[in-house]
Design brief:
Layout (H helix, E strand, L loop, with lengths): L1 E2 L2 E2 H17 L3 H6 L7 H14 L6 E5 L6 H10 L4 E8 L2 H10 L5 E5 L11 E6 L11 H15 L9 H9 L3 E12 L8 H10 L2 E7 L14 E7 L8 E6 L8 E6 H5 L25 E5 L6 H4 E3 H7 L6 E4 L10 E2 L13 E4 L5 H7 L1 H12 L6 H4 L15 E4 L1 E3 L10 E4 L9 E6 L1 H9 L3 H9 L4 H7 L1 E3 L3 E3 L2 H5 L4 H6 L16
Parallel strand pairs: 3-4, 3-6, 4-5, 6-7, 8-10, 15-19
Antiparallel strand pairs: 1-2, 7-9, 8-9, 10-11, 12-20, 13-16, 14-16, 17-19, 17-20, 18-22, 21-22
């Protein structure tokens, strides 16, 4: 394919080779930290094809990519629109490793590619098409002073005040508005997690109030778009114009952007009150319900974050081999993959009757007391200190450094992570725990509220009945409250599990008036 003497197919072939070479020259860990995940060529072309459908047929294109890399989207722009329809094109790339070779590659085209930080550039509102796969840099890789700068600049550009937990890609979206002409179209290839998490609230508010949100297409999490990043991806389309009255948004899922597996039109008004946008298009808009939820019956806490499971959680064999004092350890359930059953029985001491018996170091003694009373344990702690364990984040914020959070045994625990493609179709497991074992943070511990505790005391079989009801909750109810990552991995935080409807339990247990007790939910 040639346009104005430029062989676009040859340039794209060279660009793909260049991208592979440049990626190979960087450590995967560095690219991950900098959020550098190149857009697959087929996906880039599909996105530009969709953009062509959204722009007026006779309009000239003034194109901007704020994180252009080697130019996957610009190359697709040339193939889809042709040079004759492109009035101008600009791109920014902060990393010279990619920018300099890309500038050389496209030097005979109309692309004005700058080696610069887009978040610091002076905006020019000339562009009617913004397409970008922004850097997926998590907030903890952004220095605090840089966060403050980005928050202020994003606020000025878009009127949106982003959370300090927002990733860099959220700022790119907000900052780009200052570059967009009236009624310009933007398409963003971004992680879908903003649709569910707390920091995404400001992004969703921006999309509903400051621009006209047109469509969000979410790829099936099992169909990872980036070979080098396990992230669930979405393409967000909006127009730079205030939304009209009674506006609705198209949500699509699975398949491709041009041929999704399913889609649904959702009123903006409903989206204003919906915390989990990944519920769509698979679910209808939720009607106001008086059905009981898990939080009406349980206080939910994440399991213990030890700071080093391999150091603080030891097997029975390891305790015996090292001659460590059993009285300085408490039983703890093994990870879900080593727990074949969903009901844990116990011996007379409360230890789980499992083939894999694990124990958590939690002596409740000072180092001096341990040194004088348990020399073998003292030696073990000295080994851990020699490895620098006492200087790790969690350990150095505890006193003493080897102490653990207070997590009493819970009668029911729920797995924290799961996959929706399991044979039984159930991503999360509820486990009935008759033992004195606590749990690590791969579980959620479910503690009965005072009213449920009283009811269970009067009816010894009640907790078993509740456990069975929990395991009958439809997977969609759980998935609808949780969040999903690339590769189909689902996560359920305490506050998310707390909101799951549990209608059957409302028939089994009489709830007290809502003001009678406080239902606390904790997150680590």
């Amino acid at each position: 394919m040639k346009h104005n003497g430029i062989d676009i197919d040859d340039l794209e072939s060279r660009r793909i080779t260049l991208q592979r070479e440049l990626d190979a020259q960087k450590a995967a860990e560095e690219r991950n930290r900098l959020g550098q995940f190149s857009t697959p060529p087929n996906l880039a072309e599909e996105i530009l094809t969709y953009a062509k459908m959204l722009l007026p047929a006779d309009s000239k294109v003034r194109f901007l990519d704020p994180a252009i890399g080697t130019g996957a989207f610009y190359s697709a722009l040339l193939r889809v629109f042709g040079q004759s329809r492109i009035a101008g094109a600009a791109g920014y790339e902060i990393d010279p490793h990619y920018a300099k070779p890309a500038i050389e590659l496209w030097k005979h085209s109309r692309l004005a590619l700058e080696l610069a930080d887009f978040t610091r550039a002076a905006p020019s509102s000339d562009f009617n098409l913004v397409i970008c796969n922004p850097p997926y840099v998590r907030h903890h890789h952004v220095p605090s002073e840089e966060k403050s700068r980005l928050q202020l600049r994003t606020l000025r550009a878009s009127g949106s005040r982003l959370s300090g937990l927002a990733g860099l890609y959220c700022h790119f979206i907000g900052l780009s508005q200052a570059w967009m002409a009236k009624n310009a179209i933007a398409g963003w290839l971004i992680p879908s997690e903003f649709m569910d998490v707390n920091y995404g609230r400001a992004v969703k508010q921006y999309l509903l109030q400051q621009v006209t949100l047109l469509e969000i297409h979410r790829f099936n999490p099992n169909d990872v778009q980036f070979s080098d990043a396990l992230v669930s991806s979405a393409v967000v389309w909006f127009r730079n114009a205030l939304p009209p009255d009674n506006h609705s948004v198209k949500f699509s899922f699975g398949g491709t952007l041009l041929q999704p597996k399913s889609s649904k039109i959702i009123p903006s008004e409903a989206l204003m009150h919906e915390a989990k946008w990944t519920r769509f298009p698979g679910n209808d808009v939720r009607q106001k319900s008086t059905a009981p939820i898990v939080a009406d019956f349980f206080r939910i806490k994440r399991g213990i974050a030890t700071g080093s499971n391999e150091s603080f959680i030891l097997s029975a064999d390891e305790l015996a081999k090292r001659e460590l004092p059993v009285e300085c350890f408490k039983p703890i359930l093994p990870s879900p993959r080593h727990l074949p059953c969903n009901e844990i029985t116990a011996d007379k001491k409360g230890n789980p009757l499992l083939e894999r018996r694990m124990f958590l170091l939690d002596p409740n003694l000072s180092e001096g007391e341990i040194k004088s009373r348990f020399p073998n344990l003292w030696s073990y702690l000295e080994e851990l200190k020699a490895k620098g364990l006492d200087k790790r984040y969690l350990c150095r914020h505890r006193s003493p450094w080897y102490s653990q959070e207070n997590r009493p045994p819970a009668p029911i625990v729920c797995t924290y992570l799961g996959r929706s493609d399991k044979k039984d179709g159930r991503p999360f497991r509820f486990i009935l725990n008759h033992s004195a074992a606590t749990v690590a943070n791969v579980y959620l511990a479910m503690y009965p509220t005072p009213s449920l505790e009283r009811a269970a005391s009067a009816n010894p079989d009640l907790m078993r009945q509740i456990w069975k009801i929990l395991n009958r909750i439809h997977p969609d109810e759980l998935l609808g409250e949780g969040r999903v990552y690339g590769g189909g991995l689902h996560k359920l935080e305490p506050r998310e599990l707390a909101q799951v409807p549990i209608r059957e339990l409302g028939d089994l247990v009489t709830l007290p008036p809502k003001q009678a007790e406080l239902f606390a939910v904790g997150e680590v």
